[in-house]
């Protein structure tokens, strides 16, 4: 299938359609399918689950994992790229299986949220909760980052407070304060949680249920959106600097690999990446890469959309059919998923390239 046709046929309209298509495609490929039901419902009462499809030998020594939906709304892109992989069946080394994970954060996908049902940024949730990281910048700006209103004097006062912080401390410090992760404000942005979320626990269950710790090597491709140049898929390595895993990422994917923890990525240094549970469980028998597809300007489009969504849910139960709700949700969806042929085609091309290079790396592992 050419990339333009894939761009027009592989991407879903919503979570429910995406789940139906994923399960149908996996069944047609005779994949082993396992569902992890989420205890919540979607906005239209639909059942939610993380669904997993295993293609290839059951006793595979090596596994390529395609992971979508860490940040729920970003699954529109990840699910589309997984559907493309199902349709094109990338060539993998002998003795290698493909493990596709559809919507590790199904609540966020269905409700068009970046966070989980607990209000947690899943990529900040893998920390020592007895001693969580501090973010004094967020503490200082908490009431400005998530203002009491989205317009009028309270909003304007919040913007002035943020501008004053930027003037005093610089843009880099503001970026860390805003999105570096925080563990004290449950309704706030980039909240890492007080304990492991359902999605965190489901990560562990998937690893155990598919005996991934017994495999010779596991490669994970984690699909994300919202940072960087429009349509470009940055390859982000969040393994600790100087480790063999970083060297492997560079050997497999080349010099375009970036490292937040080394200050070379559009993503700043973070705590609690999902990669950590894979490192904990699999040790050095695992290589993890993130594809981060750029959408729109962070300050002009992405952050205002995130703020509006958090503000909406902080007001109480959300009426899905309310016009204000739909305006906020569609703005966030657009900020995280560019529904145009050219952007989707670029996403497909990059995904195929990264999968091909991962397969070559696994052949050498």
Provide structural commentary.
- There is one protein chain.
- With 365 residues, this protein is α/β, with parallel strands linked by helices.
- The chain has 2 domains: 3-129 and 191-295 and 336-364, 3-Layer(aba) Sandwich (Aminopeptidase); 136-179, no CATH class.
- The chain is built from 13 helices and 8 strands.
- Strands 1-2-4-3-5-8-6-7 form an 8-stranded mixed sheet, with helices on both faces.
- α2 packs parallel to α3 (75-88) and α6 (152-169) crosses α7.
- The two termini are 29 Å apart.
- The relative contact order is 0.16.
Assign an overall shape: globular
Beta strand count = 8
Low-confidence stretches: none
Rg for CA atoms: 20 Å
The SS-based structural class is alpha/beta
Terminal Cα span: 29 Å
CATH level 1 class label of the largest domain: Alpha Beta
Q: How many distinct helices?
A: 13
CATH superfamily of the largest domain: Zn peptidases
How does CATH name the architecture of the largest domain?
3-Layer(aba) Sandwich
Largest sheet: spatial strand order: 1-2-4-3-5-8-6-7
CATH topology of the largest domain: Aminopeptidase
Number of domains: 2
Query: Main beta sheet, described?
Result: 8 strands, mixed
């Amino acid at each position: 299938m050419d990339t333009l046709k894939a761009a027009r046929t592989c991407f879903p309209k919503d979570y429910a359609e995406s789940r139906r298509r994923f399960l149908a495609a996996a069944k047609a490929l005779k994949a082993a399918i396992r569902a992890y039901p989420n205890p919540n419902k979607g906005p239209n009462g639909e059942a939610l689950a993380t669904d997993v499809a295993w293609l290839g030998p059951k006793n595979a020594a090596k596994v390529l994992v395609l992971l979508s939906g860490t940040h729920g709304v970003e699954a529109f892109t990840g699910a589309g790229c997984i559907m493309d992989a199902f349709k094109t069946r990338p060539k993998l080394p002998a003795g290698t299986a493909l493990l596709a994970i559809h919507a590790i954060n199904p609540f966020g996908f269905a409700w068009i949220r970046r966070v989980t049902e607990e209000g947690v940024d899943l990529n900040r949730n893998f920390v020592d909760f007895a001693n969580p990281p501090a973010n004094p910048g967020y503490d200082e700006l908490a009431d400005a980052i998530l203002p009491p209103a989205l317009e009028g004097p309270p909003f304007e006062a919040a913007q002035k407070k943020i501008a004053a912080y930027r003037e005093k401390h610089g843009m880099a410090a503001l970026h860390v304060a805003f999105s570096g992760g925080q563990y004290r404000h449950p309704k706030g942005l980039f909240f890492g949680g007080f304990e492991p979320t359902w999605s965190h626990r489901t990560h562990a269950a998937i690893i155990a249920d598919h005996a991934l710790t017994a495999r010779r090597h596991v490669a994970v491709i984690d699909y994300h959106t919202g940072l960087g140049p429009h349509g470009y898929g940055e390859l982000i390595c969040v393994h600790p600097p100087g480790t063999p895993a970083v060297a492997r990422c560079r050997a497999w994917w080349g010099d375009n690999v970036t490292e937040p923890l080394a200050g070379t990525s559009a993503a700043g240094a973070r705590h609690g990446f999902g990669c950590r549970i894979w490192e904990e469980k699999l040790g050095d028998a695992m290589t993890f890469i993130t594809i981060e597809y750029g959408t729109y300007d962070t300050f002009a489009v992405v952050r205002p959309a995130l703020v509006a969504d958090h503000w909406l849910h902080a007001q109480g139960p959300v009426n899905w059919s309310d016009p204000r709700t739909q305006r906020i949700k569609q703005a966030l969806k657009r900020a995280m998923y560019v529904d145009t042929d050219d952007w989707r085609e670029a996403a497909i091309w990059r995904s195929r390239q990264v999968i091909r290079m991962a397969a070559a790396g696994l052949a050498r592992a």
